[in-house]
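Before drawing any conclusions, I looked closely at one protein's amino acid sequence and its backbone structure tokens, quoted below without any editing.
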Amino acid sequence: MENVTEAQENQTWGTWTDQIIEYKVVSTLLVFVICAFGIVGNVMVILVVLTTKHMRTPTNCYLVSLAVADLIVLIAAGLPNITDSIFGSWVFGRSGCLGITYLQYLGINASSCSITAFTIERYIAICHPIKAQLLCTLSRAKKIILFVWVFTLLYSVMWLYLSDIKEEAYENDVTIVTCGYKVSRQLYLPIYFLDFGIFFVVPLMLATILYGLIARILIMNPLPSERNDKSKNEQSNTTRGCKNSHHTSTTATSRRQVTKMLAVVVILFAVLWMPYRTLVVVNSFLEQAYMNTWFILFCRSCVYLNSAINPIIYNAMSQKFRAAFRKLCLCGRKGSEKPTGGTYSVALTYSVVKDTSMVETTDQFNTELDEITCEITCELPDKKMTSLSPSLFLKQGIQT
């Protein structure tokens, strides 16, 4: 795989030398492990949100969109990199070159837009809770996600016309097939820097500003909704007041925890993409591109890791995701979220503001209840429980 640049077009190919066996083994195993964990983890994120009713919040919808985009990156960029390391040549033909290039840019751009979308959603939910009642709803989140994918689907179409395979003949009678750009360097660089600005620089600048405003609100001022909850607590009886006070504290804690989790996702996005983006920008101004194979492997691995690490972050920083993952792993098909008509039921009704903030009021209790049911059901499968309810993009860009 190669980026067709002006310098390379004038290059005379010498003797072909294959990659050393150490590089092949390390690159193949490293990328395979990252992709395997990433694919399994992102599939689990999608499953727990789609199959668990109280997990279907606006924020989680954006996380599902991000998981789908990460899956596309891992499959379209990570797995072809394994075959490239093993065979040293493009093995998927011209159609594969066009399709895989398209999917790579689609996944990368959709993930960036999804991160931008939930960053804005967090800002509105925390800093403007009144507006959040109208803006941060589940139906609106679905419409925004639909727009994100339609936009990125159409935007990425241009790469179908910019990519093609190329045969490179070497002096020792070796012909290598590569998948790269068929446009000149002068045409490719403006397109790349446009892509770089829209899907990396702008999202990071926006995230920096918005999370800075969110941090100021969370550190210096109590959440506006907390004051309303406290006034309501004073007017209620003692028992009800204690419950509401507990729910208020849980709401504030949950909002802060979710915001921290999403901020970590954004920070990792910036840090893990930085080596690759920096290398591409530097190579864009060098007459002879820096092409150290081990450093390129490091840059690629960081990008693949960015698409694989998010489910680990959710599991480590979100109690709801952790319980849902545990239920999915332990119970499989035996786990049931739908009430069985037993002697206990919990109403899953909560306000829009709480829903957009992923708060854990009755939902938290339901998650814990499902977790207990799951553990008992898995340990005693014969007993019926009725009382509880349960890469092309990387290599091409680097060579600019």
About this structure: The chain has a mean pLDDT of 77. The CA atoms of residues 58 and 356 lie 6 Å apart. The two ends are 13 Å apart (CA to CA). Residues 6-398 form a domain with the Rhopdopsin 7-helix transmembrane proteins fold (CATH 1.20.1070.10).
